[in-house]
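Supplementary Note 3. Input sequence used for the single-chain structure prediction.
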Amino acid sequence: MKTRTLISVQILIIILVVAVPVLFAGGSKKEELHGTWINEEYKGNTPPFEKHVITPDGTMQFFKTEVAPWEPDIEVLEGGWMPCDSHAYTIEDKWVDSDGNDWYKGEAQVGGYEKIAPTAYLLMKISDSNRVLEYMVGRIDYHEELDPTAVKYTYRIYYRQ
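The predicted structure, written as discrete structure tokens, is reproduced below.
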């Protein structure tokens, strides 16, 4: 009887040691793309803007901290943030690479830029740490890879807040 109880306890411990980390690892990661992303180096009145909020309802919102001379009546929100742009977006594809980074292909409807291209094609990567968002903006089609040497209007990098 004692031996059977001891074996049962040992089996239970092994199951807990193996199963608990797997359960918590799988359930702790929410949708990586959604959230608030900031790059304080992106100051100014033209894209890219300092703060980028991606919501589950299909909206990308952009905020800045500097007021342009032509915007004297812009609304300033808590923390000094001013809304400056908003786009509807859809995710067309999602995958995870061998390094654990999450990749997305998405399309954003970029109102106000119809003369250039009404749709922006976004190739986005969330780092395996879930702390860094990098993406490329294409006006005709998706970029094949991220290129940090591209102009700042094409390549962007943000950090999760």
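Helices lie at 2-27. The CA atoms of residues 123 and 143 lie 6 Å apart.
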